[in-house]
Specification:
This protein has helices at residues 9-19, 24-30, 35-43, 50-59, 64-73, 91-103, 126-129, 143-148, 160-176, 181-191, 238-241, 253-259; strands at residues 109-112, 118-121, 214-218, 221-230, 244-250. It is α+β, with helices and mostly antiparallel strands. The chain folds into two domains: 9-73, 434 Repressor (Amino-terminal Domain), CATH 1.10.260; 88-259, Beta-Lactamase (2-Layer Sandwich), CATH 3.30.450. Strands 2-1-5-4-3 form a five-stranded antiparallel sheet. Helix 1 crosses helix 3. It is elongated, with a radius of gyration of 22 Å. The termini are far apart.
Length: 266
Amino acid sequence: MATAAPPRVGPLLRAWRRRRRLSQLELSVRAQTSARHLSFVETGRSQPSSSMVLRLAEELDVPLRMRNQLLLAAGYAPAYTESPLDAPRMTAVRTAVRQVLEGHEPYPATVVDRAWNIVDSNASLALFTGKVAPELLNQPANALRVSLHPDGLAPHIANLGQWRAHLLGRLRRQIATGLDDTLRELHDELVAYPCTEPEPDVEFPGPADIFVPLRLRHGGGELAFFSTVATFGTPLEVTTAELAIESFFPADAATAAALRGPTPPQ
């Protein structure tokens, strides 16, 4: 039985260059090499050094996980380690993440990996997860699945069409920046979930809008949030590079007052 040939570094680099919409000349200038040499690398006529592979990957903004794949395709060992978050060498990362999560109380915050699986969260995230079917929270719980599944948060989101379009747009942009079949499969699953509300094709702001809010039905009223996403600024390790902390803030005074009350809503 024939087996597929292993990927070659030249075609992989060419695919990344085209994804970034750069010409060979533009990339060669950025990487301080000649367009002729880059052409030879892409066609397999020249074998790049490991430093050249990494230099090209840096200019193409290739994720660390994919940089390791490029190195392997060129015949070199991976340069970037990948450690479980509970590994001893990740103590500083875990500590930093917990400081951010706990410091964000009483507002919800969560940490996700590259596939949007929930890695950690603060206690206030129960405001969201408390409305979700327990089976959706089995590990690995996926933040986008939890948000948009009909047994998840979706029935409680007052602006589901708008929020769903926002999340799917973020996911499509993430897919566009990398080569990840896992994210494509997740996108196809999420798109198939039912939604009876209209979904805007473009996030066009109204007169007073400055962000897309999450409007959550709660206790006969609504809570409104906006979110920010934080990542590690200079990661040199795959797991660390792929972590993202999403922090939710009250979008109006009523929501802030509700969450700062004597007993945070569950």
